[in-house]
From TrEMBL:
Keyword set, alphabetical order: Magnesium, Metal-binding
Domain of life: Bacteria
Mandelate racemase/muconate lactonizing enzyme C-terminal domain residues: 41-142
Cofactor(s) named in the record: Mg(2+)
Protein name: L-alanine-DL-glutamate epimerase-like enolase superfamily enzyme
Length: 266
């Protein structure tokens, strides 16, 4: 509802949403996100190659911690394969989706440092703020979490506990653009940056209006769906995006004929 109201205000004023929110960045960085644990090594390499070689994206993220962390050797094999393919100049991130115990996460993070992994997302459950903080103190890899935040208190507790190096915020969960700005202010007060979780074409507009912004998760599934459903979606090629200043609102139009095939009768 909050996002829709900002969109309506931008339509009334004939402005891009990013400018209405108070744009401070010309463009913002992004990272390619996917690398699911059910992918074979070949499938993982193909996806990474598309991002890095074809689209020129200098940051990529893959999933680890399949079956609640019980396949750590497989995780490390996939990380080695990823680093070998992308080379040393591309930033490599991993996302455990709360899959490890604190002990497992501590063992894994030593290997992540070896392969110059820069970002360890949700190594343990995001409710374990003490566990996140202790792991953060034990490694040079950035610890990230926050995508499940639905209110400002959640973000304040996470930041106050010293649990993360970068606070993730999902604009479709946190309460829209208005609450995003408040969460970003909480992070800024602690000297932290924020990163956008998913919803890339919505996130871009609030990202360019956030001074302490790091990057957008350009999630493979969301990117695919948004291209199917909308005209005017942004192109992640090159690793940065910027809202179209010539287009009002979000700059996207629903492809009604293309979407019709997915309608479900009541």
């Amino acid at each position: 509802m909050d996002i829709a109201l900002w969109d309506a205000a931008a339509r009334f004023l004939e402005l891009p949403v990013g400018r209405l929110l108070g744009r401070v960045h010309k463009s913002v960085p992004l990272y390619g996100s996917g690398g699911f644990t059910n992918q074979t090594i070949r499938e993982l390499e193909t996806q990474l190659d598309t991002w890095v070689r074809e689209q020129g994206i200098p940051r990529v993220k893959m999933k680890i911690a399949e079956r609640d962390g019980s396949a750590i050797d497989r995780d490390l094999t996939r990380i080695r394969a990823a680093r070998s393919l992308i080379g040393d100049d591309v930033e490599l991130y991993v996302d455990a989706n709360d899959g490890y115990s604190p002990g497992q996460a501590r063992r894994v993070v030593r290997h992540l440092e070896q392969y110059d992994v820069r970002w360890f997302e949700e190594p343990v459950t995001s409710d374990n703020l003490v566990g996140l903080a202790r792991l953060r103190q034990a490694t040079t890899v950035d610890i990230a979490a926050g995508e499940y935040g639905y209110d400002l208190v959640y973000f304040a507790r996470m930041v106050g506990a010293g649990a993360v190096d970068c606070l993730q915020v999902d604009v479709t969960r946190c309460g829209g653009y208005t609450e995003w700005a408040r969460a970003a202010a909480v992070a800024a007060a602690a000297g932290l940056e924020v990163s956008a979780h998913c919803a890339p074409n919505l996130s871009t507009h609030v990202a360019v209006a956030t001074p302490n912004f790091r990057h957008i998760e350009w999630f493979a599934d969301h990117d695919r769906i948004e291209k199917i459903f909308f005209d005017g979606v942004l192109d992640p090629t090159g690793g940065t995006v910027s809202p179209d200043l010539s287009a009002a609102e979000h700059g996207m139009l629903l492809k009604r004929q293309d979407v019709a095939q997915y309608l479900v009768s009541p």
